[in-house]
Design goal:
Helix content of chain A: 40-55%
Number of strands of chain A: 8
Strand order of the largest sheet of chain A: 2-1-3-4
Distance between the termini of chain A: 31 Å
Order of helices and strands of chain B: HHHHHHHHHHH
Largest sheet of chain A: 4 strands, parallel
Largest interface: A-B, 63 and 68 residues
Number of domains of chain A: 2
Shape of chain B: globular
Largest sheet of chain B: none
Number of strands of chain B: 0
Strand content of chain A: 5-15%
Radius of gyration of chain B: 19 Å
Oligomer: heterodimer
CATH superfamily of the largest domain in chain B: Alpha-helical ferredoxin
CATH class of the largest domain in chain A: Alpha Beta
Structural class of chain A: alpha/beta
Number of helices of chain B: 11
CATH topology of the largest domain in chain B: Fumarate Reductase Iron-sulfur Protein, Chain B, domain 2
């Protein structure tokens, strides 16, 4: 069978090595996200080098109390990444947003960027990019490459794709495709054979930022999203962020709960990776019943 | 008394041109938590313009913001209201205002303190300390217990080697009064 590569795909160079910043969540509450990322990259024969001795990006806490600190803490990780010059892949959209914000200040050589260089004690060279996991898999690896590897198409799995906020906004930081109407996640899930349900809430907030501080606010936003996902006909939601996933799993109201998947888990499942079944046990809302009903899990 | 220098202070810290707001209300229309607020983002921008500093620093609204950045993405004048609310929180904390949500401040101070000492966040330490400090001991216990049983949240904190570098970052950027000047 001839392999047809699109012009766009031919134009994208295949990168075989990245630096990797897991962030704190992927070492704890989002272990299955980390495991699925590692498994998918291994299957794609792309090496991830975890940044040595990385530190926490400070998440929402420094943006709440000290903007300068929220810029400087990710700066140390960028200084570590600069040594190898490889692009840094960041799965957590919160971490991605913080590092991208710092990168922007460094790139435009602002006073804030100079403060970061001084606090960290390095000089920014700009020899690498901070990239989101969805961007690297969707645009650099490419959807055709994913489609070719699919062994077990996710036929009949009715899902809605959910981006949340921090991959898309602020627009000047993330530079994502159309932030009001993003399409990459849905195109990726379609390439895996999933049955996508259209809905209007893909970039609405889950309140993840407030899930531990003001849980009642998060619960309202979560339940609104879940209600709209059900109304759209979805049996599960697909997330790109550990903070969204945790908030959506933890803050759903009483009664039957809607399962959630990290998008890399669905890639691993569609690739037919044996490890996939070990990920579902780590979900607060088990997706096993749903997968069994579709013969996607034995 | 209105504080007529307040808009400059907030403009500088937030790097947002608040004076450009002509109150089209798109920020407020898109805000997912505006029904939990007293003023909402648009009126907050107006109050900054009018120098209503004390009211704003003591307002609960600035702690309700979820930081989703919808307001900024939709503003025709490219004012990021979420950054403005962030600056207001930061000023409230730095100037010891009567903060409406002391629990939130405690949480974020604990978080930043943990990162300062270990370089990373550790859920169990953070939540245990926060629940002790706020005496809210039993919320989220079932979910927390399940996460521990699943082996997802490590019991021991992970401590990085470069703690002196973290100390330097906190010393340079982290002092309570320090505010970043305008980027351009």
């Amino acid at each position: 069978m001839a392999i047809n590569l699109s012009d766009r795909e031919l134009a994208v160079p295949q990168v075989k090595e990245y630096s990797y910043y897991p962030g704190c969540s992927l070492h704890s509450t989002a272990l299955e996200f980390n495991e699925s990322v590692q498994a998918v990259f291994k299957a794609l024969d792309i090496k991830l080098y975890e940044l040595e001795d990385w530190n926490c990006c400070s998440a929402a806490s420094a943006t709440t109390l000290n903007h300068a600190l929220s810029l400087a803490l990710p700066g140390r990780n960028l200084a570590i990444a600069q040594k190898s010059g490889r692009d840094v892949v960041i799965p957590c959209t919160g971490c991605y947003n913080r590092h991208k914000t710092t990168e922007r200040e460094l790139k435009r050589r602002s006073a804030a960027g100079q403060m970061v260089e001084q606090a960290v004690g390095f000089s920014y060279q700009g020899n690498f990019e901070v990239r989101s996991l969805l961007d690297v898999i969707g645009n650099q690896v490419g959807l055709e490459a994913l489609r070719r590897r699919v062994q077990k198409p996710l036929n009949g799995l009715k899902v809605v794709g959910y981006y949340g906020c921090l991959l898309l906004r602020p627009v000047e930081v993330t530079q994502f495709e159309n932030p009001e109407r993003p399409t990459l996640l849905n195109r990726l899930l379609a390439a895996l054979g999933a049955d996508l349900q259209p809905w209007s809430y893909a970039s609405d907030c889950c309140g993840g930022d407030q899930t531990l501080v003001k849980p009642e606010i998060a619960a309202r936003l979560v339940n609104r999203l879940v209600e709209h996902a059900r109304e759209a006909g979805a049996d599960a939601m697909v997330t790109v962020c550990p903070l969204c996933q945790m908030s959506l799993e933890m803050r759903q109201g009483a009664g039957a709960k809607l399962p959630l998947f990290y998008f890399t888990e669905l890639i691993g499942l569609a690739f037919g990776l044996a490890e996939a079944s070990s990920w579902w046990k780590k979900h607060l809302v088990s997706p096993v019943g749903l997968l069994k009903s579709l013969q996607l899990e034995s | 008394m209105p504080d007529f220098n307040f808009i400059d202070q907030v403009n500088t810290l937030s790097e947002q041109p608040i004076e450009l707001c002509y109150h089209c209300h798109k920020c407020t229309a898109g805000c997912p938590v505006v029904d939990q607020m007293e003023y909402g983002p648009d009126r907050i921008l107006r109050m900054v313009q009018f120098g209503e500093k004390d009211k704003l620093l003591q307002s609960e609204d600035i702690w309700v913001c979820v930081g989703c950045e919808t307001c900024g993405a939709r503003c025709p004048n490219e004012i990021d209201a979420a950054r403005v609310l962030g600056a207001l929180r930061e000023i409230a904390f730095a100037e010891n205002a009567a903060i409406a949500e002391p629990g939130a401040v405690k949480f974020h101070r604990l978080f930043l303190g943990l990162v300062q000492r270990t370089g990373r966040m550790h859920e169990i330490s953070l939540l245990a300390l926060h629940k002790l400090w706020t005496l809210n001991l039993f919320s989220d216990l079932p979910a927390g217990a399940r996460l521990i049983m699943m082996g997802k949240v490590p019991l021991k904190p992970s401590i990085i080697k470069g703690r002196s570098e973290i100390a330097r970052i906190y010393a340079t950027a982290g002092s309570k009064k320090k505010q970043v000047p305008n980027g351009d």
